[in-house]
Design a protein that fits this description.
The chain is of the alpha+beta class. Among the domains are: about 1-165, Neurolysin, domain 3; about 200-265, no CATH class; about 375-550, Neurolysin, domain 3 (Orthogonal Bundle). Helix content is about 55%, strand content about 5%. It is built from 28 helices and 9 strands. It has helices at about 1-15, 45-65, 75-80, 85-100, 105-125, 130-140, 150-165, 170-200, 215-230, 240-250, 255-265, 275-295, 300-305, 310-345, 350-365, 370-375, 380-395, 480-500, 515-525, 530-535, 550-555, 560-580, 590-600, 620, 630-645, 655-665, 675-680, 690-695, and strands at about 205, 235, 400, 415-420, 425-430, 445-450, 450-455, 455-460, 460-465. Strands 3-4-5-9-6 form a 5-stranded mixed beta sheet. A two-stranded antiparallel ribbon has the order 1-2. A two-stranded antiparallel ribbon has the order 7-8. β7 and β8 (about 455-460) form a beta hairpin. α19 (about 515-525) packs across α25. The longest helix has about 30 residues, at about 310-345. Bound molecules: zinc ion. Zinc ion binds near residues 494 and 517. Zinc ion binds near residues 490, 494, 517 and 520.
């Protein structure tokens, strides 16, 4: 198959007369680095491209099945791995934009195509004749002389068939199809409701006096938002974190904090047209049905089957080890908060909307850390210099901004050529930092094109980091919070993983869900290291490097607030697990009550809610991290332990360790399972001690 593709490509190149299509997606992308001509592609082009992409792959699959030769790795597995090239190209171009530059028509198209994609995938992975060929190859795998990557691709494809129901009878297969289709629609509706609620749930304030305590740039941003929404002269906040978080952290007005807090945590729970309660309950029920059909007791068992953790027990074991010390830590923080309230001559019992506000005060009292002062050293362009500096010191990468001749999908996103130590182009990187209405909340890393091989040459990946960092208002600098900087380093860790991946087969690219966060989370460890801060943390007005005294304070205070952060995170992880280990769905399941009861039983302090509540928990309900939100902590065991490998040498840029990390973790993609790769890097299994120490719990 690879050979055929090559010959076809050569033939085309020789005659040089491939007819140009009206649809840019059907032509070769001729801009530098093969970047898509974004502005020329219309919604109709995308629709046509995806439909044709599916048709082409269908034909390719039919050809594999029709092959009269006995099944071999090349004519079956490799051929499958190569199939769907056009679909990959079109979806690769469309998907990042559907999260960052979404329009009504894009959302409509997603809705229209979602069931088609789901049945397209079912058509492939429930195809009995195709499975018979795959199985035949799988059964001879020991004698085929496959290399490690080929073995992994074969195993992945085989398992995907089994997990897609290839071994079910026809009636069961039909049921599974129906469930998949329904689930994908519900998950999409959930996500779209949430996007709507995040952007369109507003808290409006009539007088600026009510905003006492709020930093000026946030007041200005709120005024701008009001103006954009026809409420000039007022101040508005939506439920994007950069808009609403500062209210919770800085506003003296307790009533306003309460309003914003309730609005934020009740996204999807407002009994309106975008309510996600019934949808979530339905999703959970259908998932259980699917798991049962596949021979599992519950959905979590099924989801964990191909992850590092393997079983729900292993997940609970990890979460529970950290839960108890975290709640204890949170109780200490709440005690500090009570003290701060008393200092103001008041004596009310703190509620959720008091937590961030008074914790910030307690932190200042304890460590005299002023977040505002720190922010003046964290201007976005400087932060990006810090991000690049670390990648350069560790791996020798350099970043050249590309300004001309490269199509841009968004004027505020910057494009860079990533150049490796040996001078070769390793990847293209888009850095898309600021919020806009068409962008969903949160931060993520995605690709317009993944790394692959074509005709023996490495096709470089085109990687995107999307964040919702604090934007500048007017001409002012875009100053970031510590959290935002952490997020930028985090997403860039994912980007490094994508830049460096070097696999021959598409099917060897992915890693286990609970391994994914290792490269991203380890990258956060460099963000506030004094040696790194000294390079990038410069005062936006004076250019003065952040004083060592302030660096020390950041270090000392960084563990403060971990009680809250850990409890809210584990609470969400536990709820995610609790819902998906159910073996029976209670009648009239109300996911909000279920969540609250489960957490109350475990003794969650009343001042803390799960980081996401069920109606706005897109990680689990949207589908990506179902029975998988624990992964961040699972990976934190790994990243804390892995960073120790650097720290133990006394040099956070130790080249020997960096090379090992690159070779064993970043480059191999998913050609091996996570634990094997980790052990190859570390020389042993990961240990939890470093995590507890970093969170100030040991
Ligand atoms: Zn991540």
């Amino acid at each position: 198959m690879k050979k055929t593709v090559m010959i076809a490509a050569v033939a085309l190149a020789m005659c040089g007369c491939a007819p140009k299509s009206d649809n840019p997606l059907f032509n070769e992308f001729t801009a530098p680095f093969g970047i898509a001509p974004f502005s020329e592609i219309t919604i109709e082009h995308y629709r046509e491209g995806m439909l044709k992409g599916m048709d082409e792959q269908k034909a390719e699959i039919a050809a594999i099945v029709a092959n009269q030769d006995a099944p071999t790795f090349e004519n079956t597995i490799e051929a499958m791995d190569c199939s769907g090239e056009l679909l990959r190209k079109v979806r690769g171009t469309f998907s990042p934009l559907s999260s960052s530059n979404s329009t009504d028509e894009m959302r409509e198209l997603e809705k229209e195509l979602s069931p088609l994609f789901s049945s397209h995938s079912d058509d492939i992975y429930m195809n009995a004749d195709l499975f018979a060929r795959v199985k035949a190859v799988y059964e001879q795998r020991e004698s085929l002389g496959l290399n490690a990557e080929q073995s992994k691709v074969l195993e992945n494809i085989y398992k995907r068939f089994v997990n897609s129901g290839a071994e079910l009878n026809d009636e069961q297969k039909a049921k599974l199809r129906e469930l998949n289709k329904e689930l994908s629609m519900l998950q999409l509706t959930f996500s779209q409701n949430l996007l709507y609620e995040t952007n369109n749930t507003f808290v409006t304030v009539d007088s600026v006096e009510e905003l006492a305590g709020l930093p000026e740039e946030n007041i200005a941003a709120a005024a701008k938002m009001a103006e954009q929404n026809g409420q000039a002269g007022k101040w508005m906040f939506n439920m994007q974190r950069p808009s609403c978080n500062p209210v919770l952290q800085y506003c003296e007005n307790r009533e306003l904090r309460e309003k914003v807090y309730n609005a934020y945590y009740n996204r999807g729970n407002q009994d309106n047209d975008h309510d996600n309660k019934a949808i979530s309950a339905k999703i959970v029920a259908l998932r259980l049905e699917k798991a049962r059909l596949m021979g599992f007791e519950n959905y979590a068992q099924m989801a964990l089957d191909d992850r590092m953790a393997k079983t729900p027990e292993a997940v609970y074991n990890l979460l529970e080890q950290v839960w108890t010390p975290a709640v204890k830590k949170a109780q200490e923080e709440i005690e500090d908060i009570r003290r701060e309230i008393r200092k103001e001559g008041k004596n009310f019992e703190p509620a959720g909307w008091d937590y961030m506000y008074y914790l910030d005060k307690a932190k200042k009292a304890k460590y005299a850390v002023d977040e505002q002062e720190i922010r003046s050293y964290l201007e976005i362009n400087n932060v990006m210099q810090g991000v690049f500096y670390v990648a350069n010191k560790l791996y020798g990468l350099t970043f050249k901004e590309i300004t001309a001749d490269v199509p841009s999908y968004e004027p505020s996103a910057k494009a860079y050529e990533v150049i490796d130590r040996d001078g070769k182009t390793l990847a293209i990187f888009y850095s898309d930092n600021f919020p806009r209405e068409s962008k969903r909340a949160g931060a993520w890393c995605t690709s317009f094109r993944g790394q692959s091989y074509e005709n023996g040459g490495r096709v470089i990946p085109i990687v995107v980091n999307c964040c919702n960092s604090a934007a500048s208002t007017g001409d002012g600098p875009a100053l970031q919070s510590i959290d935002n900087v952490e997020t930028i380093f985090h997403e860039f860790g994912h980007a490094l993983h994508s830049f460096m991946r070097d696999v021959q087969y598409n099917g060897a690219g992915g890693v286990e869900r609970d391994f994914v966060e290792l490269p991203s989370q380890i990258n956060e460890h460099w963000a506030f290291h004094p040696e790194v801060l000294a390079v990038y943390a410069k005062h936006y007005k004076t250019g003065e490097i952040i004083p060592m005294e302030l660096v020390k304070k950041i270090e000392e205070s960084s563990k403060y607030g971990q009680g809250f952060a850990t409890v809210e995170y584990i609470a969400a992880s536990l709820s995610d697990m609790d819902l998906h280990v159910l073996t029976e769905i209670p009648e009239n399941l109300n996911v909000m009550d279920f969540e609250a009861e489960g957490l109350a039983k475990r003794g969650i302090p009343s001042q803390i809610l799960p980081r996401y509540r069920m109606t706005n928990f897109s990680h689990t309900m949207g589908g990506g991290y179902t029975a998988g939100y624990y992964s961040y902590m699972w990976a934190e065991v790994l990243d804390a332990d892995a960073f120790d490998a650097f720290a133990e040498t006394g040099d956070i840029f130790n080249q020997e360790v960096a090379t090992k990390f690159r070779n064993h973790i970043l480059t191999p993609g998913g050609i091996d399972d996570g634990m094997t790769m980790y052990k190859a890097f570390r020389g042993r299994e990961p240990q939890i001690d470093a995590l507890l120490r970093n969170r100030g719990m040991k």
